[in-house]
Specification:
KdpD_TM; ATP-binding; EC 2.7.13.3; five-stranded parallel β-sheet; histidine kinase; alpha/beta; two-component regulatory system; 27 helices
Length: 861
């Protein structure tokens, strides 16, 4: 069976006309003679949408009773039985009512497509799963109904239904989208001009990316390798050298000349890792790419020019930016065309920009005297030349004959090769010169002179020395590459170790500083900032060791005798104590300082985010507090004011009964008002951390009985299950009584009339647990945590019950007494509140400390 095709109408916001366009397309298909049926359409009371749906065959929806509400849902079985050629399914992200075949409407659509039915559907950009967090940042609204990106990306067609934000707000103001009562709220919240503009841009970019992906798939499937200039894509080739920033800025300017230009930076790494650039430079260039709005890519290829061109073709690049070769001109002449010339030859129709820079065409330089071998190996090579030359000369002179000149030359050649293998280029050159003079003096006519009679002999000596130099150069180059490979492996191991330490939960700064000390065999390493030590590894000479996480006064690097100091960002300094580091070591230090700077910046951002989070939470509480005060305090205050005003009215003669009722009303209202204000003050003290708690051993019954008396509850309402011999608890008698009063009042209120509330106590593992058990309606699992939030009634609209602070206060009181308050389901239905407090016998010394701390807090309050 052929799978059906999915066509989705995408919109930036409600009201842009997605459903209208879908119905319009359905009418067009019907007029062409196609079999079209409406599976489900949500008109939202919009007259134009309802009129467009008239005349189209509709599969009757299925009616689902959910919590007393009658919901109309898509009848999947009915549509499958009807089997139209095209089915119109509105709101792809819709969540189905419980009890249907699928939880989401997009799953119903998948079933229709599998049955060979073509589907036309609609969705808003805010319902795409990958954009959920972005939508929340823009609108401040969390979208509960989402569609997986894979569903939309697998659609055969995605069509954008677009409208200007100003026009959409105009339609909203005219009452076309929402009823008049919702217009003002919508205009000032979700439908703000900035929100709509951002959502529109998001929809356009998402569709543009989808079109771009479809284009790349088409080019790959059809083997199209030449560029299609749909938009400018500028690829910048980075070597890891200092010219990278120049190339990136030039590439960014080229990309900015055309609308929608895209900057891509690529670094080619060879498989052996020997031609990698400077890690510090690459890290800085990667950060610059991100600042310029581009993307950084790293590919592996043994042939760098072909790897660059293949990458550029793979991303459909239109421009390729490379730098002028940094090789000396003499080397370029000897080794032939470089990377730039090969890239130009292989690029085809991709424009190549070769950018000049300050590091281009350096002057020729002699090899470093030290070479790649250690000083010890060079000394061994020199000693071998000095000792082996005379010894070999003595042996050859003793055995010399007129016919042995060829063997003599090869013997000296072997000596030079051995010296080159042992000590590198400079001892080998010394051995070659010494061997050449020795050959001329002892074996070439005239003997015992340095005169060469035959020009051919002179040429042979020169070739002999050249061969020795070339062999020693190859040995030196191999040693250099071997050292580079070992160092690259060590650097990779170091960075991987640091990353592993951080992933295992260690402090990033401490891990970086500790591994730096170990990697470079230093006496001590410190990271200091603002006069304090952020992290340290090893004792600093002349100072006391500083813990890695403490901030201590800093004497300064110069006074402490730091061998090297490196700036880390704008405020921190990395101090290294011990041996002097070589240039190659400092190369890796640049990477470590970049990682330290990133860790410091992350810490600063985290600290700022935490501060903003607490401010946002406090602001949310203040907002809720004002709303609660304005709503819940108005009723008792108004009642008390009206009663007192009535009593003082001079023109009204009240009877004694009326006067008593007014006084009772005023007294009741003022008592309610006093309780509400007390609860608000308790919440304020809890949040400020100044709630006074006085812990002392307390028998559980001593707290339970006063709570029952306060509520006027007896055996008819509450059943007690407190076993004898229960150990006392460490608690504040007043606070524990307030907690029990709140929990018992809630349990009695929600329990059925014929069911008792059970209060049970038990001891386990040094703690005493008190359970308040009711058989009421209970709370759904997803809302259990919400019961402890301030100003939550969980759907209770009875404003006579207070501000919704009771359980929030109870939990705060319990935590202040080192206890916990948790919820459990009552078997058979209902809710169980579990109080857990430390037993006085088990608390021991901990209880004494807690009482002292609580007393201090009380005094501070």
């Amino acid at each position: 069976m052929t799978r059906g095709q999915l066509r989705v109408f995408l919109g930036a916001a409600p009201g842009v006309g997605k459903t209208y366009t879908m119905l319009e397309e359905g009418r067009r298909l019907r007029d062409e003679g196609r079999d079209v049926a409406v599976a489900v359409v949500e008109t939202h009371g919009r007259a134009a949408t309802a009129a467009m749906a008239e005349g189209l065959e509709t599969v009757p929806p299925v009616q689902v009773n959910h919590r007393g509400l009658l919901l109309s849902e898509l009848d999947l079985a009915g549509v499958l039985a009807r089997r139209p050629e095209y089915a119109l399914v509105d709101e792809l992200a819709h969540t189905n009512a419980p009890g249907l075949a699928h939880a989401k409407r997009w799953q119903d659509v998948q079933a229709l497509l599998d049955a060979g039915i073509n589907v036309l559907s609609t969705v808003n950009i805010q319902h795409i799963e990958s954009l959920n967090d972005v939508i929340e940042q823009i609108t401040g609204t969390v979208q509960r109904e989402t569609v997986p990106d894979s569903v939309l990306r697998s659609a055969d067609q995605v069509e954008l239904v677009d409208i200007a934000p100003q026009l959409l707000r105009g339609r909203l103001s005219q009452g076309i989208i929402y009823p008049a009562g919702r217009v003002d709220a919508a205009l000032s919240n979700y439908f703000r001009l900035g929100n709509l503009t951002a959502l529109r841009e998001l929809a356009l970019l998402w569709l543009a990316d989808e079109v771009d992906s479809a284009l790349n798939r088409y080019r790959a499937e059809n083997g199209i390798r030449n560029k299609w200039e749909a938009r400018e894509r500028v690829v910048v080739a980075l070597t890891g050298g200092p010219e990278g920033q120049t190339l990136l800025r030039r590439g960014a300017r080229i990309a900015a000349r055309s609308a929608g230009g895209h900057l891509l930076a690529v670094h080619v790494t060879t498989p052996d890792g020997l031609r990698d650039g400077h890690p510090g430079e690459l890290a800085a260039q990667r950060a610059l790419v991100e600042k310029l709005g581009g993307t950084f890519h790293q590919v592996v290829g043994s042939d760098i020019p072909h790897a660059l061109v293949d990458f550029a073709r793979g991303v459909n690049a239109t421009q390729l930016v490379i730098g002028v070769s940094r090789r000396p001109r003499l080397q370029a002449l000897l080794t032939g065309p470089g990377i730039g010339a090969t890239v130009v030859r292989e690029s085809g129709d991709i424009d190549v920009h070769i950018v000049n820079h300050s590091a281009a065409g350096r002057r020729p330089a002699l090899p470093r005297l030290g070479g790649a071998l250690t000083a010890r190996r060079r000394l061994w090579g020199l000693a071998l030349a000095l000792a082996g030359g005379p010894l070999l000369t003595w042996v050859l002179v003793t055995m010399s004959t007129p016919e042995s000149i060829t063997g003599d030359v090869l013997s000296y050649q072997l000596l030079v090769i051995v010296v080159a293998l042992a000590g590198g280029i400079w001892p080998a050159m010394f051995a070659a010169l010494l061997s050449g003079i020795t050959l001329d003096y002892f074996f070439i006519q005239p003997l015992y002179t340095v005169t060469v009679a035959t020009p051919a002999h002179a040429l042979a000596l020169v070739l002999y020395i050249v061969n020795a130099v070339l062999v020693s150069y190859v040995v030196d180059r191999a040693a250099r590459r071997s050292r580079t490979a070992r160092r690259a492996a060590a650097e990779s191991e170091l960075l991987a170790s640091v990353a592993g330490n951080v992933l295992r939960g260690e402090d990033a700064l401490a891990a970086l500083v500790g591994r730096t000390r170990e990697a470079f065999s230093l006496e001590s390493v410190r990271l200091t900032a603002d006069g304090g030590v952020l992290a340290a590894a090893g004792p600093v000479p002349g100072t006391l060791r500083t813990p890695a996480t403490s901030r201590t006064p800093d004497r300064g690097a110069a006074e402490a005798g730091a061998s090297l100091t490196l700036p880390v960002g704008e405020r921190a300094v990395l101090e290294l104590y011990g041996r002097d580091l070589e240039a190659a070591d400092r190369r890796l230090l640049a990477v470590i300082t970049a990682q330290l700077e990133a860790a410091l910046e992350y810490g600063d951002l985290t600290e700022t985010a935490e501060g903003l989070g607490s401010l946002a939470a406090a602001d949310k509480v203040r907002t809720a507090l004002l709303a609660a005060v304005g709503h819940d305090l108005r009723r008792p205050l108004t009642a008390a004011t009206a009663a007192v005003t009535g009593l003082r009215a001079p023109d009204v003669n009240w009877t004694e009964q009326d006067r008593a009722e007014l006084l009772a009303t005023a007294e009741e209202s003022l008592a309610t008002l006093s309780g509400l204000v007390t609860s608000l003050l308790d919440v304020s003290r809890l949040q400020a951390g100044v709630l006074g708690v006085s812990l002392a051993p307390l028998d559980t019954a001593e707290a339970v009985l006063p709570a029952l008396e306060e509520l006027g509850l007896g055996p008819a309402e509450v059943e007690l299950e407190i076993p004898p011999g229960l150990p006392p608890v460490m608690a504040d008698a007043v606070l524990l009584q307030r907690v029990l009063v709140n929990l018992l009042a809630n349990a009695v209120r929600f329990s059925p009339a014929d069911a008792k509330v059970v209060l049970a106590a038990s001891a386990f593992a040094g703690r005493v647990e008190v359970r308040v058990i009711d058989c009421g309606p209970g709370i759904s699992p997803e809302r259990l945590e919400d019961v402890f939030l301030p100003f939550q009634r969980l759907g209770d609209t009875d404003n006579l019950t207070g501000l919704g602070l009771g359980l929030a206060l109870a939990k705060g009181f319990m935590e202040g007494m080192m206890g916990t308050l948790e919820t459990e389901d009552t078997p058979g239905g209902g809710l169980t509140m579990v109080l857990s407090l430390p037993a006085a016998a088990a608390a021991g010394e901990t209880g004494a400390h807690a009482r002292a701390a609580a007393t201090n807090e009380s005094g501070a309050a």
